[in-house]
Fold these 2 entries.
Entry 1:
Amino acid sequence: MPRVNIVAINLFLAFHLIAIICWCVPLNLPLFPLCRRLVRPYFLWAGLFQTWDMFAPRPWGSNSYVEAVVIYKDGSRQTWSLPRMEQLSLTERYFKERYRKFSEVLQIEENDALWPDAARRIARLNSTPSKPAKTIILIRRWSPIILRPDGSYQPEPWDQHVLLGYGVKPEDLR
Amino acid sequence: MRVRLRSFAGAWNRFFFAKQSPVPIALFRITYGLLLIATLVLLRPDWLAWYGSHAWISLQTMQTVEPGTRINLFSIIPQSDGWINALFWVFLGSTILLTLGFLTRINSVIVFLCLTSIHQRNLFITHGGDTFLRLAGFFLMFAPAGAALSFDRLLRIWRGKMKRGTELGARPRPQRPWAQRMIQIQLCLLYFAAFCAKVKSPVWLNGTALYYVYHLDSLRRFPVPAWFLYPTMLKLESWSALALEFSLGVLLWVKDLRYILLALGLLFHLWLEYSLNIALFQWDVLSAYILFVDPADASRAWNWIKLRAAGSN
């Protein structure tokens, strides 16, 4: 292999090695934040960004899901929910697992920019030309998981919190 | 100082450039391809729900909440369901060809572009396994993944570019494993980073973290034995998970410990596969274990299996 190729590969390796370590290892060592800032545009472009924080720093402390109240133009209403893994068969869970992740993401307040899109899709899924949806109310429902000294588990009552009330526009249903 | 630098350079060169059999990276390519095919099959029913013109998150919203220039074929192709479906079939076709090792290099690039694009199009539905496949796919583009167990190799032989006896009859020509090493390092970093993220948290240190995990309804797959949930057992499991993640992140490079750790890692992921519903995550991660198996050991194991099979006949 020509020497120039070897040099190029070595530079490629050294750069990626240092950059990936600085990016993904969650330690606040000197130079790590600076390195992250420098490589950020390249990592976002190339898809090399990564976080390995499943169940970290702590697992979710509650059972929760997102449901929507669909209010129709004729005044009727129905409750609709994103697919809930615990209500699906084993095979269905393999296919629908992405909804678990999506539901988790939707429940986080910082992701409020996603709520109108989700509400629009729910409106489309639940509308017919003769019965269009007028309002979508996105609701987060949760039941805390409380650790007991003997390790036993007692399901707690469900609580709820309105994430968004969305007025459906005619163009949302086209 | 100069001696140290020279020995570091020597170790670096041996690690990244000492030629070795391309069979492990070829086996990884096949496993990687099969996992991507499985991912696509599982995604197919909701392909347009996630990526279509009326998806859960619009392309515009995605670009607003995750700004920046990114490799994303969705921002190039017209936003009609026909084009978005066509992308699915191109992705699937290219993945099948990559798995077979036909036009391996080109297909590894197409697969990486498509995979990165679907992640960039909707970052909110990807799990760690998807991320690992994307990162491995990046380095796979540079690897000699078609040098063994591939149609490319067969074609080279048929076209007479390789002579029988030197290539086909014997083993495939050794290759520089630098891209394979980067995938291996990426796997170790996955474990080490996960360990670092957990070890800062009181629930992992006091050993109660898994209590919460086991009681998340949406994650439960098969029932966990009751004695697994005793406080003492939960502590033991939480700490074992931390110890194992640290070991797989750091000690996997110690040759004498490698197979023991790989076996423990395999058991760990199989347990997670049994107990938790996270689609293909465990298999995505386990696929890279192949890269840690020494080709000579794999060859010995294969011969042993053949001998046993011959003996039983």
Entry 2:
Amino acid sequence: MTEAERLDAAQAILAREGIPARVTIAGHARDVAAVSAAPEHLARLAELAPEVKALGFRYLALELQAGE
Amino acid sequence: MAGGGPTSVDEAVLARKRAALQAILCECGTVVVGYSGGVDSVFLAKAALDDLGAGAVLAVTGRSQSYPEVQRQTALECVRRLGIPHLEIDTYEMGDAAYLANPSNRCYFCKTELWDRLGAVARERGFHAVLDGSNADDAGDWRPGLRAAREHRVRSPLLEAGLTKAEIRVLSRRLGLPTWDQPAAPCLSSRLPYGLPVTVERLRQVERAEELLRARGLREFRVRHHGDVARIEAGPVETARVLHEAGAIARELSALGFQRVLLDAEGYRRGALNEGLGLVRLGGAA
């Protein structure tokens, strides 16, 4: 699976769950799925983490925005 | 309780294990205790003091750039308060290229340096045994540092006695030790994923970031360093606080040089950076 395909698949999982979000790859090893989403979705992201990580990510994390 | 407070224990089992610990300590006679100021080593040093007397115990702290200053202060406060003979020495794992490369057995190289130097202290001062604070729970975790301990004939009385972390917390609380509910506090290099080289700059970034979060009231958490990314793992209470103060936290950590600041969806879990490693039990390949 290419990086782009992993991202698309992760994005699709969140969309399926009705979570408006953007997923990017982060980290020196490019193994972190970084999700830009509203904070109230964090608990649901935790539940979805195994499914997203199965795409080849080691971590699923919410982006904290300095401007918030 | 941030550190995972005492749960109910079987008093008879606990008494038997404490007696076993005493027997092991008495068998050792005079002991140098590898002393970081964490829950286990504080309890072990206090047990050795109680069972053997002050003349038979020396707690030794290895000081280096990977040792958090906040932990050092706890260590110093405990020996002062408890009257435990103590020595600080410098260790030089940061001069070892194998350590700096940050392989999955990084702890082996650090502990080899530590036990080399503590062994020398023991020999020079006439102590019979060098002890570490490994406990029964550590036997099932990825602990390449334990291999270094075995190679240096370092004994692990808490592990040998079968004492678990929860039981050590119970006994620590009964002794009035301030560390009884202290969260685990491994070295700063443990915040860097394997393969990301250890540098002084990265260690300072992690230490400063964790100081900032601690100042905001967080206790159970880690800041993991992923190059230009800081990934915060927080306990349930801390997660709510991080979300509430997200903007300020992101600004503060960005000012330390992190381009992105993330909050892990699954929260804090011990040994998170070992996830994905083939877990090899104690005695296996480091």
